[in-house]
What does this fold into?
Amino acid sequence: MTSSSPDSAGRPAIRTIGRIQPCGWLLVLDAEASSVLQASANLPELTGLPMSQVLRARPAELLGRRLAIRLKQEIKGRSRLPAPLAITRRVGEGSMKVQVNAHRRGDRVIVEIEPLGPMGQRRLMALVNEWLRRIGEAESRDRLLDTLVEGVAQLTGHDRVLVCRFDADWHGKVVAEHRHGPVASLLGQHFPASDFPAQARSLIEQNPVRSVPDVQARPVEVLAYQENSGAMRDDLAACVLRAPSPEQVSYQEHLGVGAMLSIPIQSQQELWGLLIGHAMAPVPLAPAIREAARALVQMAAQRLFLLRARQEARYLQRVQDSRDLLTRARRRLPSPESLVQRHGAEWLALFRAQGVTLVHHGQLVSFGQVPSLEALDTLVSRLEAQHTHEGPWYTANAEMQAMTQGLALDGICGVLAIPLRLNTQRRDWLLLFRPEQVETLYWAVPGAAAGDRSGSAPAQPLPGRHSAWREEVSGRSIAWERIERLAAMDLGEDLALAASVHEIERLNARLHQEQQALADANRRLEQLAHFDSLTGVWNRYRIEQAIDVELAAAERYGRSFALLLFDADHFKRINDRFGHEMGDRVLRELARRVGQSLRGCDHLGRWGGEEFVVLATETDREAAVGLGERLRRLIAEVAVEGLPLSITASIGVALWQPGDSRKTLVKRADQAMYRAKTLGRDRVCLEDGGADASPVT
Ligand SMILES: Nc1nc2c(ncn2[C@@H]2O[C@H](COP(=O)(O)OP(=O)(O)OP(=O)(O)O)[C@@H](O)[C@H]2O)c(=O)[nH]1
It folds into this structure.
């Protein structure tokens, strides 16, 4: 900002508050657009008034009454004019058609006046429509961009129109170009990120079209009286006419460019790239042509994002197909480990990767080429500790990331890590690895590239080319694209689900086994608790329970039942003569035969030693004695292999009497049995008072 002191005549000082290009005129008005605050120093040419007067004039004196009123009305309550106003101005002897545009900046209204070009509106419209049609029909990205650069070149007359695509680091690569005349090609070359500083990128939002019709032209100062000069430094940031900075001028000179145009290719979410027009000599660019070029770029951007969406949809379909396979596989419940082995090759193709690792329950399963186990372990612990959110972690430049630095990655430069949340305590991971991809870059501007990128060899000038330097970029893999990251997240979700299903199935199987074991144990326990281990018939505890149940039923319903207690005769002799094992065999055989001969409603139990109890339900005295006699005969017929003797038993019979307890009933049966013993054995005795069945044949 420069200023001059009041002159000798005492007139107030005039300050310079900015600069514009000489291809137009600029006025800064107050918020109501009713008084002039600042004006470009070339306004005397257009108005015929001296500068001192311009700075004191009312807008109507400079723009004409009708235009000034329209301007005032149309900018009221708006941030910019809905459409430019066109007027014809008398300039000197002749007249000139100019376009007036205005926008608000803080509490000021900035008015830009530009001469309209010679091309008729109708011819221009026809041309634009033709190119819009061609752009709308392009079926591939390359075809689309080629059409765009050709169309813009035809409209603007620039010698070289190119499309520069930004990468994730804001380096730009020239991906399409149209040239006219002997101008050097920049196709395939790179512009370093330093050519597109963040500040310049943010200016794109304020004023998307940047046109410098004459790079070398001396800028025109925007002046103000001291009292009106309190302008913000960036007052002119959104002006089309804003003069390029000295650095921009020298940059363009370096490229040998006399005129330039730049229009962003963007969606609401992203700045995809830039369309750049270069002319070796100055080229005036009428506002209508500038706008037409912008319309072409906007149409191309729309088409570009549509084509990309289609391509992404195709890619997602492939991923979906793979996920379907996984879902089908899930029904067969394979382990996550076997899924990796089965689908690994397919995932590597889908994600352009060379290796994949699934970290599941602390176990690592890999397919393809992956880092060493030690490196993987370290990577997973670092991810666990440092990557706290649910989204993916990724890098194309592993050496430069703290997460992957210092790991023996064996030539792997790209890592995409997807956290799989299976339980709340610990995460599993799906890891994809990409190899290094050495790339040769041609930098459009020497010097600027060196040091910008890590791991790259120093940039070398290319022999025979002035504007390109060659650089070998190493230590990087191809970048993980957004759509690939999203697809990997989907795959991760499926894997987590498959792992959960498998895990649940495994736990269920274990639970089933445990239940089975528990049931077996219970069965064994019951066997132990209720059955005699030698003979397999009920033990004393169980038969006592049964007697109690029968006593209760008899007490309640008056149902008569009998208890038969029998004891093998002279059993000791068998043991003594033929051994204890023979004694055991005899007891088993005896129990088996007696048990088999009983009715389903009667019960046999071992009372202890060689003594057994038969509980005969619904049995009266006669039937009980009959049963005793039947058993006596049956026992006498029992033959045991290797035993040359016959076996006999003494049987005591007692019948339930009202008021009986287990003890009294058993006691009577025991006494009866004792009597049978004393009467000579091998006989049935009824309790006291009953007639004994006679034995011996
Ligand atoms: N082998 C075998 N012997 C048993 C078992 N339980 C008891 N004994 C034996 O059975 C015999 C019973 O002998 P005693 O009570 O003298 O009666 P006994 O020899 O049958 O004579 P009486 O009952 O008077 O006819 C003892 O020798 C016990 O050791 C068993 O489970 N297996």
Q: What stands out?
A: The chain has 17 helices and 26 strands. Residues 228 and 343 are 72 Å apart (CA to CA). Confidence is low (pLDDT under 50) at residues 446-459, 461-466.
